[in-house]
Amino acid sequence: MKVLDIKKLEKRFDTIQVLEDIELHIERGEFISIVGPSGCGKSTLFKIITGLIREYRGEVRIEGAESRDYTQPISYMPQKDLLLPWRTLYENARIPLEVSKKPKGEHSGRILPLIEEFGLAGFENAYPHELSGGMRQRGALLRTFLIESDLMLLDEPFGALDAITRMEMQEWLLEVWQKHNHSILFITHDIDEALFLSDRVYVMTGRPGRIELEIEVEEERPRRREILLEERCMEYKREILKILRG
Ligand SMILES: Nc1ncnc2c1ncn2[C@@H]1O[C@H](COP(=O)(O)OP(=O)(O)OP(=O)(O)O)[C@@H](O)[C@H]1O
Questions:
Q1: 42 CB within 6 A, ligand 1
Q2: Superfamily of domain 1-74+150-246
């Protein structure tokens, strides 16, 4: 069964058509990206998948169930890291466990190994303003990992980071993805980021957002960054740019 299967999805807000005839799927364990111009409806698509928007036409199936009827939580990291400033890193990480009413005695056993794995050991009691941008994003991702869901939706998680930190975070994300075996849907404006990370890339047009191209990135893993300079990726980039420029 597909983790996510979207067919003929249409979404309008009053007179504005935002999404048109979206067809998209994710197989278990895949890393899938969507690139598209600003305002093409990517965030709206995420809100439909997570059930925040319930009115739409077409089919949106998660683990076989229509998204409106899917009652399990879905890991979703919005564009901003959204760590609560008045809670420490540890207390922020605890939120999904509090929401799902996990017994308090289990919290540290779940959180501390991930803090270690995410390179945040020693910062458990730090407040978000005491962390670097990359650390805050790792903290927000850690919290997302504690939501028990195979499907993870990441909305431009590295958009606000400087170029070097961003590259480090991409490599790190691939490592944790491969270890934890999640199915990821990743939104980005950055074509190189999409090609470096993904098994497949969906390219959307400007509003109304349609999927104009699907690229299978047939590069071996672990990925080498040099592939982005090789002819096959250059050709992908030319095709993607053509669509993004309309
Ligand atoms: N609740 C709403 N009511 C009316 N229009 C909306 C609503 N939410 C989004 N829109 C419109 O839908 C379009 C798509 O918005 P959305 O935020 O999904 O785009 P996006 O691709 O995520 O943009 P960006 O890349 O800039 O974050 C925009 O034109 C926006 O103004």
A1: yes
A2: P-loop containing nucleotide triphosphate hydrolases (3.40.50.300)
Q: What is the ipTM of this complex?
A: 0.94
Helix extents (H) in the chain? 42-50, 89-93, 95-99, 104-117, 133-145, 163-180, 191-197, 231-244
Ligand 1 atom nearest 41 alpha carbon: 18
225 phi and psi angles, rounded to 5 deg: -65, -25
Pick the atom of ligand 1 nearest to 13's CA: 4
Residue 50 near residue 217 (C-beta atoms within 8 A): no
- Mutation test residue for ligand 1: of 10, 12, 13, 187, the one with most atoms within 8 Å of CB: 13
CA dist 178 and 184 (Å) reads: 11
User: What is the number of other CB atoms lying within 10 angstroms of the CB of residue 57?
Assistant: 11
* CA-based torsion, 208, 213, 214, 218: positive or negative: negative
pLDDT band at 81 (very low <50, low <70, confident <90, very high): low
pLDDT tens sequence across 107-163 = 999 999 989 988 899 999 999 999 998 899 889 988 988 888 899 999 998 888 888
* pTM score of the predicted model: 0.92
Structure tokens at 35: 């690139």
Structure confidence at residue 92 as a pLDDT band (50, 70, 90): very high
> Domains of the chain: which residue ranges?
1-74+150-246, 81-148
Calpha distance 246→228 (Å, rounded): 23
**Any ligand 1 atom below 6 A from CB of 6:** no
